[in-house]
Task: structure prediction
Amino acid sequence: MKVFATAAVLRKGSFNRKLINLAANKMREDGHEVDLADFAEFDMPLYNGDIEKTPDGALELARRISEADACVISIPEYNYSLPGILKNAIDWLSRMDDVPVAGRTMSLISASPSLVGGNRGLWQARIPLECMGAWLYPGMFSLAMAAKAFNDDGTLVDPALEERLVYVLRDYLTVTAAHNAR
Result:
């Protein structure tokens, strides 16, 4: 299965970037092809309904999502919500004639230095994605205390948490395979 994976961040040292890298490695170990994207590849201006031409960054993001069988996004929590760069990208994607997430499955994961692990941001991200027709896997993964959660090699310090991440990814991809086969 081909999986599009990205972290909705621009900061190089982001915990969500570390988490999506780990997730991509785990999915590759299970034999999946992973298109791991840096969100900076999808540069686009703030959404403006007066701009008639969809920006190249939004078109590229739409293309990469459309070419994949599954989509995993690691999302930081900003002020109890989703990051502005992701909301902006969602706004651009939602205005396309063929909305790339419509009918697609998606899995949301997060990492945060807080005790909540970014979970509130995941719930906020679900709203516009579901309204655009995406089917979101219900078992989200939130990594709390992320500043202390990673080993130097990018794996998780707590093997039980890493097993939980692998379970979420495997189950999501199993459900997606069944969804795509219908």
